[in-house]
Amino acid sequence: MRTSDKFHDECGVVAIYAHPEAEKLAYLGLHALQHRGQESAGIVSSNGMALNAHRAMGLVADIFTEEVLAKLHGTLAIGHTRYSTAGDSTLLNAQPIMVQSNKGATALAHNGNLVNAQEIRGRLERQGSIFQTNSDTEVIVHLIALSREQTLPEAIADALRRVEGAFSLVLMSTDRVFAARDPRGFRPLAMGRIPAAPGEKRDTIVFASETCAFDLIGASFERDVKPGELVIVGPEGVSSHFYAPAAEQSSCIFEHVYFSRPDSMVFGRAVQESREGLGRQLAREASIDADVVVPVPDSGVTAAIGYAAESGIPLRFGLIRNHYVGRTFIEPRQTVRDFGVKLKLNPVRSLLEGKRVVLIDDSIVRGTTSRKIVRMIRSAGAKEVHMRISCPPTISPCFYGVDTPSKKELIAANRSVEEIRDFIGADSLAYLSLDGLRDACGDGEKTTYCTACYTGHYPTSWVDVEEIQPVAVVKR
Ligand code: AMP
Predict the structure, then answer these.
(1) N or C: which end of the chain has fewer CB within 10 A?
(2) Can 11 be counted among the known catalytic residues?
(3) What is the pTM for the complete model shown?
């Protein structure tokens, strides 16, 4: 796989088995997972006879109106919310994907990124398969449809053994729900239960990327889907199958740093606990004399609480976030400097004026946001701005489902910490160490982590980390 083939899908998935309003629970679950992707969303439901789908661009609450949900009425449902970079942001690539084959109607929603999708796709296309999307996920659907295995569960297991990379999947037929994770356990997937209501025969079984989705729908967290596991939920009950042996665990540490919500349990661990620990560790590793600790909301808030507690420097919300910013906004003709960031964040002058500020954020990717925020804090009268980042420098792109840009756009891949400090205009800059990050996230306790974005060491083969430039073909 080449970097240029990479899909930057960040997603949330949810599945509901056996509930009289499965479509509504899927909708609420997706709403709780909206932070994992704001570009498109979809739900496929089953009324026991057929699958019904609705997919659209936009936010969950805007897409799923009463009328749309009425058409999706069913007892089983899966859902997906997605963010991807501009190039492939089409409705065509929205999920869940549906297919009709000799194994019956099947729908699938995927969080993660396959690293051998292009290779498999090329092979299938040469054999005559016609792909409808340019998403890596469609490969799994084709492999299921083409599998020589007779039953759907066997065909799913067969397909999953052929793909490589990161996948947390929920699938459904008209009468069953399936959930699976790749053998390395890159992305999270949790299983929960809602006890049967009086008069109902069965408990409702649910799956979601993060447990915060369970809280909204009244489900209790039961366990994570295990790496290499395929869970099947049907009229016969819940059964667990291992389609592949678990490999060395490579759970995405960035879920704990930034991506997941602090109110979720992810990889068996409270995100809140990790994130506060990151801040505490950062204070131990990179202390500085200052008057206030200020988080960049929302991404730096929990780490800032930890930093303030450990350092004894008071926490102040010196930046206020406007939560109602959509994707695009009309800018006045006379352009405002740092317009995009100003729409979202505004400094509190009375808290910052004359102060030495420790500014806490989760990560620096391109560096452009941090540069604007530092400028903003200074313009509100801060005397000093000390930037502290609750993870190590991001030096390598992610091939497993987090949207990091290519190496040439990653500031830490190309500049030293001192050069980055100079670029963002801070008085000092410090990142958390890799060991500090691992410790704070409990590495080796419930799981071991993938830290490839900080080290460049990828846990799978297939990843060609060199940026391959298109080669001009000269005709002779
Ligand atoms: P920048 O350095 O300007 O590229 O912006 C970095 C900020 O974007 C960080 O402080 C994060 O809060 C946020 N961020 C980091 N990684 C991601 C990601 N994969 N998707 C969306 N936002 C991100």
Answers:
(1) C
(2) yes
(3) 0.94
